[in-house]
């Protein structure tokens, strides 16, 4: 069995040790934020944080992360309050959303290592492919996230995912049939 920590929870996988981390996360742990994009490590849709490094999870086996601390986009912030998530929304740097989790994870790792990256440093660190072409907004979002993280700026929080429990508990009015057409 392969054991490591995922989103601050110890996990033991009863899988072939050569299983790519991406598939262990998605299939065994139901953490589907990391996406399967290319399978060759070129697109970055599968990036997760492994011991403080942005790692393409389709390219590393679970055996290679034995004993490591892995953080996925789900573990970064369940309520979307992480500065990178907030800035991505505020700067409209999200379109279709497929590549977004990998970009968010790569950006969060970058900001852990470099609290105030230049545009060139951002472009060098964020090698993710985005078919929607959000790159100029992405640079602005990461620079804004750096300011938020440093306490120099605030962003109004995006609403948390899901449905408000009060709304879910409301009774739905019965449908009355209208006239036949």
TrEMBL record:
One of its GO terms (molecular function) is 2 iron, 2 sulfur cluster binding. InterPro entries: 2Fe-2S-bd, 2Fe-2S-bd_dom_sf, 2Fe-2S_ferredoxin-like_sf, 2Fe-2S_ferredoxin-type, 2Fe2S_fd_BS, Beta-grasp_dom_sf, Diverse_Oxidoreductases. Keywords: 2Fe-2S, Iron, Iron-sulfur, Metal-binding, Oxidoreductase. Residues 156-181 are annotated as: Disordered. Residues 1-76 form the 2Fe-2S ferredoxin-type domain. The keyword Iron-sulfur applies. It comes from the Bacteria. This is (2Fe-2S)-binding protein. It comes from Sphingomonas gilva.
């Amino acid at each position: 069995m392969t054991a490591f920590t995922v989103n601050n929870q110890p996990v033991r996988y009863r899988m072939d040790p050569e299983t790519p981390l991406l598939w262990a996360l998605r299939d065994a742990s139901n953490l589907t934020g990391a996406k399967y994009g290319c399978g060759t490590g070129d697109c970055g849709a599968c990036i997760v944080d492994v011991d403080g490094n942005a790692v393409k999870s389709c390219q590393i086996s679970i055996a290679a992360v034995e004993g490591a601390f892995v953080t996925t986009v789900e573990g970064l912030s369940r309520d979307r309050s992480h500065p990178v998530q907030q800035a991505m929304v505020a700067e409209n740097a999200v379109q279709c959303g497929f590549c977004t989790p990998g970009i968010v994870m790569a950006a969060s790792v970058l900001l852990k290592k470099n609290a105030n990256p230049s545009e060139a440093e951002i472009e060098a660190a964020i090698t993710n492919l985005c078919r929607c072409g959000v790159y100029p907004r992405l640079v602005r979002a990461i620079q804004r996230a750096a300011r938020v993280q440093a306490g120099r700026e605030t962003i109004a929080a995006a609403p948390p995912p899901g449905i408000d429990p009060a709304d879910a508990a409301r009774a739905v009015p019965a449908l009355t049939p209208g006239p036949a057409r």
